[in-house]
Amino acid sequence: MYRTNVDGTTFTRVSAPPVASDHGGTAGTTLDRIVFANVDDGYATVGTNSPSSLYVTTNGARTWRRVMRAKDLSISVAVTSRELFVTTVTCQPRSIVCSQYTTRRATLAATQWVTLPRLWKTGAGTNETYYGPSLAAYASTIWELQTGPRTYLWISHDRGRTFSRRSEKWPTLVSVSGCILTPMSVVSLWAQCPTGMEESFWHSGNGGDTWSPVSPDSFQFMGTGGGAFDPITSQMAVLDFGSVARPPDLYRVSGGGRRFTPIGEVRCFNASPMAFTSASDGLMMCGLNVTTVLRRTNDGGATWVTVALPRA
After folding, report:
1. How many whole angstroms separate alpha carbon 101 and alpha carbon 12?
2. CA dihedral for 201, 204, 209, 212, sign (positive or negative)
3. Distance between CA 236 and CA 254 in Å, rounded?
4. In what order do the strands lie in the sheet with 228-231?
5. The whole model's pTM is what?
6. For residue range 232-266, what is the model confidence (pLDDT) as tens digits?
7. Which is the most buried residue in 10, 103, 200, 293, by most CB within 10 A?
């Protein structure tokens, strides 16, 4: 694992969390997700199937320690500049029904935990399949999206002490496996929702009370088409439609999802993941026929160059 500056021009090798080879997975290892709150405090979920473990570093990935292990399913993690939020799910014995979940809050060091109120769950003894929750946080606001036969969004403005529920008035965040929520402020959020072969995108400018569709006129985004979506600011994102699209396939989304501006062509069979640190600087893992390379842009995605990583 390497640490890079925001424009992706220098790289420093650091220690990876304890991952193993996953011969049955598409990613190649058991590293599921990694997220940093700042240059020192980071969190990694490890394990492609149950159980999953949460690892923490407080020294910029020089060392890692395990702080939590989920009995069932994976761990959902969200961070702010000051706190860590973790949700784990418990399934009924010998059943696909997973209805009982627990969310905990901790300082960035992950040494002292506070259990938050338990929210709505699917009815005990039913056959309802539960896919959530999707967890997101910004400052003192927390969002928990629960996806199943019914979709609910719970919102807390006091660090999880109390929650209110948004539901039937916006049946928009429908997904087969839960939407990815990306808050850019306490009022602005983006959502990426897998709906089967396709995916839908949404934007909220009022903290999740209502949502507007991000609807491009050019192409329908296919979840298996090798594309990628990355929010940059509260009003701007970048959307690559992947190998299913005709050139140009890379677009800048602005105005909270109302305007699409073509940027250029990525020329990757698979452009995920993609991460922009500003409107100009971005990185992506570019999948070619049989290899994957790291590419960098410093002009908003108009041109991309291959990054020569240090030798291991």
Report:
1. 38
2. negative
3. 4
4. 228-231, 237-240, 250-254, 259-264
5. 0.87
6. 999 999 999 887 667 788 999 999 888 999 998 88
7. 103
